[in-house]
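Sample intake sheet
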Amino acid sequence: MIVLISPETDIKNEIQILHQLFDAGLEFYHFRKPSKSLQEHRDYLNQIDEKHHDKIITHYFHELANEFNLKGIHLQEQVRKDLGVNIEDYISEQHQSSNAPKLQSSKTLTISSSFHDPSTLENCSTNFDYNLLSPVFSSISKKGYEGKGFDVSGTKKTIVGMGGVNEDTIEATLKLGYKGIGVLGGVWNAKDPLNAFLNIKKKYDEIKSLNH
């Protein structure tokens, strides 16, 4: 799986580029805009064709998953810690709201979370659909965010490697045991984000096909 994280602040032609990325095969888009209000989140989502809403995972205002029929929700590390022992109840509530009668068909939300330490991830009793672990390599989008080269080949959990992932580091990431890759700067910092995504997807698909 290829997870694309949104740029933290809006960039020029972002919605137009996003539609191109969806059409090119993007299936996991993490909508992470920490400075946007609830209404600004709605305004952003309303600009996206409804046919693509089921590819979007929201980091904030989880009620939007039901309102817009999104793919799922993401619990950032601090949110997960704050929920503590109540996390299973929270997840259960999210699943129940996603099956509300107003939706045309019931669906199961994708629920993921972020980690920055492999042992914390391994010891987490909550079984998320997938987990983001970073930084695998030195970040492209965050200066001074040094890669740790976490090897997760010994776990059965579905872990997506993030941090410094681009076309050149995909193979090394997958060799460390990751079931998928998470990309941010590798796409959005490129001169041509669509072309960067297509190259990443092509390389990823090639490597995965060779390993099967």
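Comment: The beta strands are 2-5, 28-31, 56-58, 72-75, 110-115, 130-133, 159-161, 180-183. The CA atoms of residues 81 and 147 lie 23 Å apart.
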